[in-house]
Amino acid sequence: MNVNNSPKIFVVDDEETIHDLIALIFEEEDYQITSVSNAENLIEKISNEQPNIILLDIHLLDGDGRDLCNMIKASSKTAHIPVLLLSALNFDGLDLSCQPDGIIEKPFDMMNIIQKVNQLLKTNRV
């Protein structure tokens, strides 16, 4: 696959091991990965990068992923980008207070995250 046509995944997580793991998982799928470990200037970074999907941890050292998800969905520059929330929390009965396009619980199964990302990209015709 031509790298220029490869879908772009934007990862927001403060755990470097998650960055490495996602890069390793999607390397085989020919995806481009951009990773950041904090919420600083997030909308600007996403706007500049124009990813096809965002993988966003709920608990960051400098922010709440649910609030960031709301900011992403409220911005005209980023609202069209699917957001997949990642968290070690059990989501049963959890008030997300945001509208992500999908949720993955940590630790995540490799095939599950690939399937979920591909499904969201297909739904959004990327």
UniProtKB/TrEMBL annotation:
The UniProt record lists the keyword Cell membrane? no
The reply to whether Zinc-finger figures as a keyword in the UniProt entry is no
Q: Which UniProt keywords apply?
A: Phosphoprotein
Q: Which Pfam families does this chain map to? A: Response_reg
Domain Response regulatory: residue ranges = 8-121
Record-listed 4-aspartylphosphate modification sites: 57
Q: Name one GO biological process term.
A: phosphorelay signal transduction system
Q: Which residues form the signal peptide?
A: none
Q: Which residues form a coiled coil?
A: none
Which PANTHER family does this one have? Answer: RESPONSE REGULATORY DOMAIN-CONTAINING PROTEIN (PTHR44591:SF3), STRESS RESPONSE REGULATOR PROTEIN 1 (PTHR44591)
- Name of the protein this chain belongs to: Response regulator
Species: Pedobacter endophyticus
